[in-house]
Automatic annotation (TrEMBL):
<dbReference type="Pfam" id="PF00441">
    <property type="entry name" value="Acyl-CoA_dh_1"/>
</dbReference>
<protein>
    <submittedName>
        <fullName>Acyl-CoA dehydrogenase</fullName>
    </submittedName>
</protein>
<dbReference type="GO" id="GO:0050660">
    <property type="term" value="F:flavin adenine dinucleotide binding"/>
</dbReference>
<dbReference type="GO" id="GO:0003995">
    <property type="term" value="F:acyl-CoA dehydrogenase activity"/>
</dbReference>
<feature type="domain" description="Acyl-CoA oxidase/dehydrogenase middle">
    <location>
        <begin position="127"/>
        <end position="218"/>
    </location>
</feature>
<dbReference type="InterPro" id="IPR009100">
    <property type="entry name" value="AcylCoA_DH/oxidase_NM_dom_sf"/>
</dbReference>
<dbReference type="InterPro" id="IPR037069">
    <property type="entry name" value="AcylCoA_DH/ox_N_sf"/>
</dbReference>
<dbReference type="Pfam" id="PF02770">
    <property type="entry name" value="Acyl-CoA_dh_M"/>
</dbReference>
<dbReference type="GO" id="GO:0033539">
    <property type="term" value="P:fatty acid beta-oxidation using acyl-CoA dehydrogenase"/>
</dbReference>
<keyword id="KW-0274">FAD</keyword>
<dbReference type="InterPro" id="IPR006091">
    <property type="entry name" value="Acyl-CoA_Oxase/DH_mid-dom"/>
</dbReference>
<keyword id="KW-0285">Flavoprotein</keyword>
<feature type="domain" description="Acyl-CoA dehydrogenase/oxidase N-terminal">
    <location>
        <begin position="12"/>
        <end position="121"/>
    </location>
</feature>
<comment type="similarity">
    <text>Belongs to the acyl-CoA dehydrogenase family.</text>
</comment>
<comment type="subunit">
    <text>Homodimer.</text>
</comment>
<dbReference type="InterPro" id="IPR050741">
    <property type="entry name" value="Acyl-CoA_dehydrogenase"/>
</dbReference>
<dbReference type="InterPro" id="IPR036250">
    <property type="entry name" value="AcylCo_DH-like_C"/>
</dbReference>
Length: 383
């Protein structure tokens, strides 16, 4: 089967509609004081969600019939033009990936109770896997335990870097059921036994309510809280991660393209040594390298989407795309900072924020080295 790069006219139109929404309704909020050192506040999120709802663009990926991965690539890139765009449209992490996972694995009762309120934009969700001294790049180091007690489970452990934990209602928790394996559990955020220790101070500021350290202290959950089957957490996590790491690439591609557009405009008008800086080869080459990298990233993303849309698992492809795209977009943002001169490191433009957020992207949903490790392992083990 050939890859067809022709994007249907309706999809081009939808992408343009999303971009127009983000430019007119969302970008003006970028300097809102409710974009804090710990990301946008819930209050700001609610306001943005109302705007996307009114524009008919809320949770667009969950519309009846869903969206293909390629459709998401076009729409999420447009949403990512502002880092607040995906927040408004409810297609930001971790909710977007959690909605995907729950729509695949939750039973009808769980879907009604935990998934629908997220789709409606009324509630947020968390995915709690990473631990300070256990699960990280290697989730098999999981230390949080779930011990059976009659028909209940008692969960104990400590997690960190848990995005959006404050005020989140739907919790997906990974814990090791002793002798039966890693398992995902679903519960509400107000369940006794969930303790939020603190919000971490991190260099990124694009995720709602930041990232937390949390503790589970004798969190008691019924059998019905198991998401899918006991012992299947890693399989479900992979189901979530392959498309989720691609959607990150899509959104960040939009943000990096925005940084490039700002750098290009600046290079046209800022003068030095008698001409616009863009006319100096050193600056022109940076802009050209950016343009090449952005298009490379876009095509890599579309290629992985094409694989998934054909029914493939896309695990290997999404690893290749995530490692390449996160590294290249970071370099794009870095060159944009350079082109802007001293202004580049200030908050006079959104470029500095895009740069620091892209630094974080090289770590989450699999650090670059871990994807390369997986790619190399597959190559070396292939018969
Ligand atoms: C902004 C942000 C948001 C996040 N949100 C969440 C969340 O909501 N929920 C959640 O559960 N987690 C979340 N995380 C955690 C994230 O998934 C982990 O940071 C990531 O899996 C890496 O794990 P770690 O931090 O423990 O690093 P480690 O696993 O300790 O890795 C440290 C270093 O060792 C390298 N390394 C590890 N293994 C190998 C290998 N085989 N080959 C070569 N190098 C290797 C890594 O590349 C890295 O450079 C978030 C992280 C960030 C930065």
């Amino acid at each position: 089967m050939m890859i067809d790069f022709e994007i249907p006219a309706e999809l081009v139109e939808l992408g343009a509609r999303v971009r127009a929404f983000v430019e007119t309704e969302v970008v003006p909020y970028e300097r809102d004081p409710r974009v804090t050192a710990h990301g946008p506040s819930d209050e700001l999120r609610d306001e943005l969600i109302a705007k996307a709802r009114a524009a008919g663009l809320l949770s667009i990926q969950q519309r009846p019939g869903g969206m293909t991965h390629l459709e998401q690539a076009v729409v999420f890139e447009a949403a990512g033009w502002s880092t607040l765009g995906p927040v408004a449209m409810n297609c930001a992490a971790p909710d977007e990936g959690n909605m995907f996972l729950l729509s695949k694995v939750a039973n009808p009762e769980q879907a009604a109770e935990f998934l629908q309120p997220i789709i409606d934009g009324a509630r947020r969700s968390v995915f709690a896997m990473t631990e300070p001294d256990g699960a990280g790049s290697d989730p098999s180091q999981l230390r949080t335990t779930a011990v059976r007690d009659g028909d209940k489970f008692v969960i104990n452990g400590r997690k960190w870097l848990i995005t959006g934990a404050i005020n989140a209602d739907t919790w997906i928790i990974m814990a090791d059921v002793v002798d039966e394996g890693a398992t995902l559990f679903l519960c509400h955020g107000n369940a006794p036994g969930i303790v939020i220790e603190r919000v971490m101070n991190t260099m990124d500021r694009n995720y709602v309510e930041g990232h937390c350290v949390v503790r589970f202290e004798d969190l008691v959950l019924p059998e019905s809280a198991v998401l899918g089957a006991v012992g299947e957490a890693f399989r479900y996590a992979q189901l979530r991660l392959a498309p989720a790491r691609l959607t990150h690439c899509m959104r960040w591609l939009g943000a990096a393209a925005r940084a490039q557009s700002i750098a290009v405009e600046h290079a046209k008008t800022r003068m030095s040594f008698g001409k616009p800086i863009g006319e100096h080869q050193g600056v022109g080459f940076m802009l050209a390298d950016n343009e090449i990298a952005l298009q490379q990233c876009r095509l890599m993303i579309w290629w992985a989407c094409w694989t998934l849309d054909k029914g493939g698992k896309g695990r290997h492809e999404s690893s290749m795309v995530k490692s390449m795209v996160s590294e290249e977009l970071f370099k794009v943002a870095d060159r944009c900072v350079q082109v802007l001169g001293g202004m580049g490191i200030s908050d006079e433009t959104p470029v500095a924020a895009i740069f620091t957020d892209l630094r974080a992207f090289r770590l989450y949903d699999g650090p670059t080295e871990v994807h390369k490790y997986a790619i190399a392992r597959q190559l070396l083990r292939a018969k």
